[in-house]
Amino acid sequence: MEYSDSSLQSEYEAAWHRYLKDYEAPEIGEYVWIKKNDGAYVGGEVKSLDSTTLVLRDGTNEISVARSEINRDTLANVYGDAFARKEALAEVEASQTYRLDTGNKTPLVGTLRYSISDNVVPRSGPGNRFAREDISDLNRGATLEVQEQRGIWIRVKAQGTSEQSFWVNALATRPSAECGVH
Q: How far is CA 132 from CA 28, 83, 110, 145, 162, in A?
């Protein structure tokens, strides 16, 4: 149990399950490449996977890799449970944080925001670990319609375009003069 408050615990568990879908551990028999902390790569068929060790089979050789030896980028693909937990905790903590830009915890869904940076990086999901999206004409002052919110990340669509929605950090936006619930 992470929280003594049952409503926060429920919020955390729901977030954990959402994030866990983003991370699927490899199945026994699947072939994977693992980057180790020393920069070396090892690969093979997954023979076993537990909370501390991954065992790969490459032909007749078996390679044991301790969880602590796996590079962070690869670790997310192999041990998603820990990463889902971290993202869920961050989301719950962010939802409890006082918002400097609005002065309250008002949900942003249904509002209009504008970007305050020339370097807004659109993402395919709510976090820096998600792939960059190729969105044209996304620069300072672009008006964004907020469709979903997860912690400090908001899924938006540029107003007046037919382009797909994407995720941005809400701190890279401010309320639009036209801001309001639709």
A: 30, 19, 24, 19, 18
**83 and 126 co-located in one domain:** no
Residue 76 shares a structural domain with residue 148: no
pLDDT tens-digit map of 22-64: 666 677 888 888 899 999 999 899 898 877 888 999 888 999 9
Q: Read off the pTM.
A: 0.42
